[in-house]
Amino acid sequence: MKQKQTRRQRNTHRNNKMPTISDVARRAGVSPMTVSRVINGESNVRASTREVVNTAIEELGYTPNRAARSLAGANQINIGLLYSNPSAAYLSEFLVGGLEQAGRHNVQLSVEKCDVELDAEEVAYRLVSRGMEGILLPPPLSDSPQVLDALESSDTPAVAIASGQLQKKNVSAVSIDDYRAAHAMTRHLISLGHQRIGFIVGDTNQVASERRLSGYRDALHEAGLPAPEELVAPGLFTYRSGLDAAEQLLGLETIPTAIFASNDDMAAATVAVAHRYGLDVPGDLSVCGFDDTALATTIWPELTTIHQPIIEMSRAAVDLLIKKIRARRAGTKDECRHLLLDFTLVRRQSDAPPRRRPPITVMKTSGEKQTSKS
Fold first, then answer.
1. Residue 12 CB contacts under 8 Å (≥ 6 apart), including other chains
2. Which range has the worst mean pLDDT, 11-15, 61-65, 88-92, 115-119?
3. Which CATH code of 1.20.1560.10, 3.40.50.720, 3.60.20.10, 3.40.50.2300 fits the domain covering 178-308+347-372?
4. Which of 355, 369, 358, 368 is nearest to 285 (CA)?
């Protein structure tokens, strides 16, 4: 009777979806980390707990990737890259750096996508259960408390890129000084003669967004310029959010003479909206971005932007992770470190001094926005 029930349960579950490590944990009444330890044959699990977990695995028909796990004890190092980045341009550069560096060290790099709002913690546990000895976390997951807590509880080394969450004991980090970079770009626009400078904020769940906003505001304050809240528009580091933010800033009674966006995607969207309004970039409106991804040089005019060395950051993150894993295998301790790489302000064709004439306003007529130039 019990055997028939087990098969029925297994078949029913498989008809819906493949069971996950979290499903096993819920069935057994333990944490996903405990399930991972049982799967990997670790000794620090009580016999009674191990039996409950194995029973849940059997009942659900959960099948761990044993081939991948067996590599963990072999010579080759296996690391995972967990991503959920809205900017394809940023992610592509990060992948190039990570894959190149992993190849140089004969390291197996597994890439896994997840939704930061829905299943980030589950995917992190899944990578660990598959034998990943360390995890790379590009933004926004580098600032996800759920993912960082999951990796800390599993005692899994991680390297966070462009992160402010540096208090975790197993997390190293690679970043630039976002505050100084945003401050430098704002000072650059001020030096051109701009006094009314709009700013598009990135995703507020990422520490870098707050730091870039602070750099912008402090630069204006130091120059004795006003920083009204109407000149700060919300964004999410996506092109779509950049369109909305640009509409908001260019819909003001008196529009800014320059807009500084927190990444190139949103800056490119701002250029598109400006063109739609009949504004010349940079004659009527200077637009600057952040990151210096491939997108910065594929639009017209090419973007003035902050060069964030994404490929180099990815390579450095792989090196930090490999060093920590090798130290663990050797039974030695490798302290977590925070590497701060240099940024560069790259000037191209999207910025210029403001024209010496009355401010440009956007007037609304019959539901449409038209540009009025004096």
1. none
2. 11-15
3. 3.40.50.2300
4. 355
The owner of tokens 């995972």 is 80
CATH of domain 68-176+310-342: 3.40.50.2300
Confidence of residue 207 (pLDDT cuts 50, 70, 90): very high
- The CA distance from 1 to 10, in Å, is 14
Angle between helices 47-60 and 21-28 (to 10 degrees): 120
Q: Where are the beta strands (DSSP E) in 41-127?
A: 78-83, 108-113
φ and ψ of 110, to 5 deg: -100, 135
Q: How far apart are CA 42 and CA 7, in angstroms?
A: 28
Exposure string over 279-301, b if 16+ CB within 10 A, otherwise e: bebbebbbbbbbbbbebbeebee
Nearest to 124 by CA among 133, 110, 135: 135
Query: Is 54 within 8 Å of 85 (Cβ atoms)?
Result: no
What average pLDDT does range 276-289 have in this prediction? 97
Residue 53 to residue 320: CA distance in whole angstroms: 34
pTM of the model: 0.75
User: Tokens representing 360?
Assistant: 């440009």
End-to-end CA distance of the chain: 87
Task: Break the chain into its structural domains and give their ranges.
Answer: 68-176+310-342, 178-308+347-372
Give the CA-trace dihedral at 165, 171, 176, 182, to 10 degrees: -10
Q: What are the angstrom distances between the C-alpha of 243 and each of 82, 185, 200, 302?
A: 28, 21, 10, 18
